[in-house]
Design brief:
two-stranded antiparallel sheet; 8-stranded mixed beta sheet; 181 residues; 10 strands; alpha/beta
C-alpha cells in the first residue's frame, strides 16, 4: 500500500521529522502519536508526502520548516524518480488537485479519497473538513488489522467510521472513494 499525502501549509517553527513539522489539520487528525510503534512503522513505509521543497518525504524524514509553493514542472522528475515503479497493490491518493498534477499514479490501482457532506440529502463538496477527514481516514487505515489490497478492502475499513461510496475507475480514471462526514 502506498498513501499519497499533500504537505501542510501550517508548519512548526523547528526542524524535525516531517510528521512533526507538518502541523496542519490533516496531520493533527492523523494523530501519529496515538498510533502504536507497529502502526507508525507501517506509516513510515507507506505514507509518501509530496513536498514543494523536498519532493517525496516519509514521516520520519528530517526536514526544515519552509514556505514554498510547488513548482510542478520542476518537481515532477524528482517525484517520479521516488515513486515510479513503487511496488504496491493499492495506492490511496489524498493529495489536493495541485499536488495530483506532480505525479500521475497508475489509475488501475489508485483510489482517490474525496470528502463530501450531505445537506438535505444532497452531496456537497467541503474544503477545510476535507483535510481533517482525510487525516482521520489515514489514521483508521494505519490502525486496521489488515492492510487493504483492493479498493473494496479499503472501503470496508473506512465504513467502520464513515459513510462512503466506492466508484469504480476506468482505463483512464482512478477509483474514487467518496467519504461523507
Amino acid at each position: 500500500m502506498l498513501i499519497l499525502l499533500p504537505p501542510s501549509e501550517m508548519k512548526s517553527e523547528l526542524p524535525g521529522p516531517a510528521i512533526e513539522v507538518y502541523t496542519g489539520v490533516l496531520y493533527a487528525a492523523l494523530r501519529w502519536n496515538a498510533l502504536t510503534k507497529a502502526q507508525q512503522k507501517l506509516g513510515q513505509s507507506c505514507l509518501a508526502i509530496i513536498s514543494a521543497k523536498y519532493g517525496v518525504v516519509r514521516p520520519l524524514d528530517p526536514i526544515e520548516p519552509y514556505k514554498e509553493k510547488i513548482d510542478n514542472k520542476k518537481m515532477a522528475a524528482q517525484v517520479a524518480q521516488a515513486l515510479d515503479g513503487a511496488e504496491s497493490e493499492l495506492i490511496i491518493d489524498c493529495r489536493s488537485s495541485t499536488y495530483q498534477t506532480v505525479w500521475q499514479s497508475p489509475v488501475a490501482i489508485t483510489v482517490e479519497i474525496k470528502v463530501f457532506t450531505k445537506v438535505n440529502g444532497l452531496k456537497k463538496v467541503i474544503t477545510h473538513m476535507s483535510k481533517k477527514t482525510r487525516g482521520e481516514v489515514m489514521h483508521e487505515i494505519l490502525k486496521a488489522a489488515e492492510i487493504p489490497k483492493t479498493p473494496q478492502e479499503l472501503q470496508t475499513i473506512v465504513l467502520q467510521k464513515f459513510e462512503s461510496k466506492l466508484i469504480e475507475g476506468s482505463k483512464t480514471t482512478p477509483w474514487v472513494l467518496e467519504v461523507y462526514c
